[in-house]
Amino acid sequence: MDATKKQDVRIGFYICHCGSNIAAMVDCPAVARYVEKLPGVVLSRDYKYMCSDPGQELIQKDIKEHQLDRVVVASCSPLLHEHTFRAAVEAGGLNPFFFHMVNIREHDSWVHTNKVEATEKAKALAHAAIQRVAKHKSLEVKKVPIHPDVLVVGGGIAGIHAAMTMANAGKKVYLVEREPSIGGHMAKFDKTFPTLDCAACILTPKMSEVGSHPNITLLTYSEVAKMDGYVGNYTVTVKRKPRYVIEDQCTGCQECIANCVYKEPKFHDEFNEGLGKRKPVYIPFPQATPQVVAIDPKVCLNFRNGVLTDKCKKSCVTACGEKKAIDFTQQETVQDIKVGTIIVTTGFKTFDAKRVPQYGYGKFPNVYTALEIERLVNASGPTAGHVVMRDGREPKSIGIIHCVGSRDKKTNRWCSRVCCMYSMKLAHLLKEHTGAEIYSFYIDMRTPGKGYEEFYDKLLEEGVHFIRGRVGEVTDWAMSPEEEGKLVIRVEDTLAGYVRRIPFDMVVLATGMEPQADAQDVRRMFNMSCGSEGFFLERHPKLAPVSTFTEGIFIAGACQGPRDIPDTVAQAGAAAAEALALIDKGHIEQEPNTAFILDDECCGCKSCIPLCPYTAITFDESKKKATINEALCKGCGTCVAACPSGSIVQNLFDDEEIFSEIDGVLAHD
Amino acid sequence: MTTYSYFPGCSLKGIGRAYEESLLPVFQALDVKLEELEDWNCCGATAYMAVDEVKACVMASRNLAMAEKLGHKEMIAPCSACYLVLNKTKHYLHESPAVRGVIEKALADVNLTYNGNTPVRHPLDVMVRDIGLDEIKKRVKRPLTGLKVAAYYGCQIVRPYATFDDQYNPTTMDRLLEALGCTLVPFPLKTRCCGASLTGTLPEPGLLCSKIILAEAIKRGADVIATVCPLCQFNLDGYHDKIAAKWNDCRIPTVYFTQLMGLAFGLDERQLGLHRGFVAMKPWSAQPAAAAVPA
Amino acid sequence: MTSEWNPRLVAFFCNWCTYTAADLAGVSRLKYASNVRVIRLMCSGRVDPQFILDALAKGADGVLIGGCHPSDCHYVEGNYKCLRRFQLLKRMLSDMGIEEGRVRLEWISAAEGEKVKTVINEMTATIKQLGPLGMPAKFEEWDKEMEHFAAAVHAQEAQKAPCAEHAQLQETAHV
Questions:
Q1: Rounded Cα distance, A657 and A635, in Å
Q2: Which of A115-124, A179-188, C132-141 has the lowest mean pLDDT?
Q3: Are residues B156 and B219 in the same domain?
Q4: What is the pLDDT of residue C35?
């Protein structure tokens, strides 16, 4: 420790051109020449790509040839390549923490426009790093065992696929789903684009596999309430909502539904987007997994305002008979689960079409959302696949409006990626079911996928009319006799160059994808970040697309951004593979940035103890001194900053290192 | 008693005088005082705005500066064109240092300053959001039960600044008129163009705009069109003969929402300027007597 | 070198939100003033008030601290601890005659690259108006004054050393 106090270090400095990414704005050789003269520097080089193999080998060679004991690399963000260079330094025979990285790309060359100023900034940052690295100490990476079980949050196609992959690899998986059945949005679809295979036919076998897989514990009608711990050792509290049916005893015979005191279904059916009705005791859809009914206390006669009154004659209980599956006394329960990794696949919400009042959703009964049409054309939907409108008529002409709640500054700016394709799919299906004239109103036709453009060609041949223009309004105001009683779409046909009015029987709104309403709560619970639009943020868009900023927590599917089924499944597989890679390694390597107490200097004031959110600091009554449990410490450094006697030290961020960095950034002007 | 500064603008003293004639007694009945700006000038709308936007803003800003000097918290501008230009000027003052520079210099020349205070409000907004429908309901002496109204908002109070209502489907006036006892007919052309100043320059498309609105109101079964803007009222009321000659007869009275309020408050029809319309509203007192509200 | 004076800003950014936001600003190629020097810490809770004072003493004209938004802290509540200290420090700074705009605490989430740009540009503009803080020069001046003063005292002591006067002088020196 004393050795580092003296300036007898041998530092090697490397500045990366990053092709022209850095070199175009920072004079790299000039920075190298400047650094060469700083105390402790024995070698200073500039090189085209430091992160390349030759770049890393250069460091390793120099460490040996020039007996370097410290290395500084000025290149991109440490969040990207700190790990790479630490590994290179270690391969060169040094402790990997005798290294420091300077960010002159994201924080310098990419954000400035004056080469002189950018170069000066690079010099100042490099100077700071040189001063700092001299104070670095040799540290050991801590290895913590990893719990092999996995939690998957959300049982849509992403969660189903991730859970199956992990379970097939022999891991024990908990799959938590908020609704009474898994399946998510995909279960509501009729067909999938561009192959037009039946969504249920490809999804439901996977659903039942999940339901019967020995390695999967399915927790439906449940939500994650809390998460504690750290990578490899998470404790998750799952809240199980009462469905008033004992899952293990229900066989899915549905006798209770047939015998409910309500002879006819009369309540809003969520699965059918309200187009159908269900009874208070129900199974969301025929292939629901698990095949277990649920009772809705909001409408069941045995409850009043959700409180049990026991006033119904309970014909359902009689019908259930010996199975005794119905239990009106069920309460919400909580369950703690221990897992090592978590995959979040909470999906999306469809855009609320009422937010675009000019399209008349909610005002005109014959304006539908795309998801409603999915149910309407579905053979197991509320009309058994017969397309009839809310007024009982069959549509002879249908207008489909793209980009509702997408690519619009007033609502959501992003492209929802799936709407062009699903609109064409619906156009095809509606034409098949009704023979109606179909118009599709688009801004740009986006078909970037395997077989997607070909699908568009097919639709053109089928005679669907495509009009390029953002629709102005949907109105029931008739300007001519043929518009009477119709919904009129007013649109600027930007290819023909004039404003058109086209009357329709039915209008379909291709609503976009949004983050779930509670995405912010979920984000906080799992310690993730969100992008500005509210989708979960990946660690790196290209290099770590399913990782988050919290180790051991992965994301997949539309919770990370709008995407279609093929991409979602691919991502779910990727998330599962990342989780498996962590688990199969058997241990987690933790950044040694934990804090410790200098016993001789601690005066026992206890100021630090309440500051630690992880209760890592305790007071040793015998010694009258604080102690830090290294296993619990997560390395934030809050206690270090608060200690009045300066007796807490944070590895990698100790006072002396930071002060020398401050000194360094200001030493050069 | 709440007091607002009041910027009438040219219309309310001329062609739209029925608007002022009804606005003032209605506010009085609601115990709200309006203090007219002294020596106000043109708001800068229409032709000025089209020819030299910055100069138009300079004109508007003089009114804003005087309102600020007058010291009441907010200013009411009943004409939609004034309302828009004054708000647009405030917007530019806030967003564009260049425009702000020109305006500040011009104001300094006449010893005025403007600090961006004094919001400019539309009376419809003040009625519903400041005074409130409950307060208004209390003043109704003669509910307009059975009167079928098409609420027509025009463009300028919702575009581009939709400060108090939805840009595409405003409902403030609908709620207000409902509180007076009126029946609102569903009216999809609420914010469609009335023809604006086109009627003066390119009569045919201008007249067509007016005709579309009138015909639709009749088709929807309205007895009367209610409006918030003197230009809309003029366009919809002023060209019935020409419209009849060109297409078909679309006679339906167009009145200010404040006139309907005055009527419901039991004020005198002549005082409210209801006789001024080319197509006059049938005297309400002649309608089958509506049940009086118990005091 | 540009002739115009550019203030020197030192920034302490937390690893999880603000540092990442600054990376995002880079990836988005946003452009902002080049006079900021970012020091990465794991959490804004690690910001010791001494870091800020040290930066000012060593010649920074302003200091920016960036942390996660309230209730978004990666370490649960480090940002609140930072805020608490910042409030106390602000009072001290104003007592020292350091203008309010020179030291700022901002919550910038990982998605707010745009905010990094705005805050840095705003701070640069504010401090340009305030002018250089010049603490190192002031320290030098004060040191000189003290040396001069000490020399004067020594000289007086050597001359006659009357006890009363000496005591009085010492008192003045302590004020």
A1: 15
A2: C132-141
A3: yes
A4: 94
Angle ∠(A153,A157,A159) on CA atoms, nearest 5: 20
Among all residues of chain C, which has the CA nearest to that of A229?
A: C75
pLDDT in tens, A606-631: 999 999 988 899 999 999 999 999 88
ipTM of the complex: 0.87
- The reply to whether C19 and C99 lie within a common domain is yes
| B225: β partners | B150, B254
Contact A529 C20 (CB under 8 A): yes
CATH number at residue B190: 3.40.50.11810
- Interface residue C85 vs chain A (CB under 8 A): yes
Of B186, B124, B178, the C-alpha closest to B150 is B186
Q: Which of B168, B169, B189 lies at the smallest CB-CB distance from A477? A: B189
Q: What CATH number should be reported for the domain holding residue B96?
A: 1.20.1050.140
> If phi over 0 gives left and psi between -120 and 50 gives alpha, with beta otherwise, what is residue C15?
alpha
Structural domain that includes position A192 = 150-241+334-347+516-590
Q: Do B23 and B154 lie in a common domain?
A: no
Alpha-carbon distance C41 to nearest alpha carbon in chain A (angstroms): 7
Containing structural domain, residue B72: 2-121
Average pLDDT for A120-140: 96
Q: For residue B293, is pLDDT > 60?
A: no
Is the peptide bond preceding residue C70 cis, with omega within 30 degrees of 0? no
Number of domains in chain C: 2
Taking the Cβ of residue C115 and every Cβ of chain A, the question of whether any pair is shorter than 8 Å is answered with: no
- Does C16 map to a domain? yes
Same domain, A156 and A220: yes
In this complex, the residue of A113, A634, A661 whose CB is nearest that of residue C75 is A634
CA A38 to the chain's CA centroid: 45
Say yes or no for a CB contact (<8 Å) between B168 and A476.
Answer: no
Amino acid at site A289: T
pTM tops 0.90: no
Q: How confident is the model at residue B198 (pLDDT cuts 50, 70, 90)?
A: confident
Asked if residue A655 belongs to a domain, the reply is no
- Claim to verify: residue C74 and residue C91 sit in the same structural domain: yes
C134 Cβ under 8 Å from any chain A Cβ: no
Residues C124 and C146 in one domain: no
Residues of A in contact with B166 (CB under 8 A): 357
Task: Determine the structural domain holding residue C165 and report its residue range.
Answer: 137-174
C1 lies in some domain: no
Which chain A positions have a beta carbon within 8 Å of C19's beta carbon?
Answer: 79
Residue B112 shares a structural domain with residue B24: yes
Q: Is A609 on the interface with C (CB under 8 A)?
A: no
Q: Tell me which chain A residue has its CA closest to the CA of residue B213.
A: A477
Which residues 127-166 on chain A approach chain C with CB closer than 8 angstroms? 128
Distance (Å, whole) CA B176 – CA B30? 14
A-interface mutation test, from B158, B166, B169, B218, most A Cβ less than 10 A away = B169
Minimal CA separation from A119 to chain B, in Å: 33
Cβ within 8 Å, pair C72-A636: no
Residue B46 lies in a domain: yes
Contacts of A358 in chain B (CB under 8 A): 168-169
Specify the residue for token string 């045995």: A302
What lies within 8 Å, CB to CB, of A238 at 6+ separation is A174, A176, A219, A222, A223, A224, A225, A334, A335, A336, A337
Q: Which residues from chain A sit within 8 angstroms of residue B216, using beta carbons? A: 477
Strands A142-145 and A513-515: unpaired
Interface mutation target, options A25, A539, A550, A662, chain C, most CBs of C under 10 Å: A662
Domain count, chain A: 5
Q: What is the DSSP string of A177-193?
A: -SSSSS-TGGGG-SEET
> What integer pLDDT is reported at residue C175 of this predicted model?
38
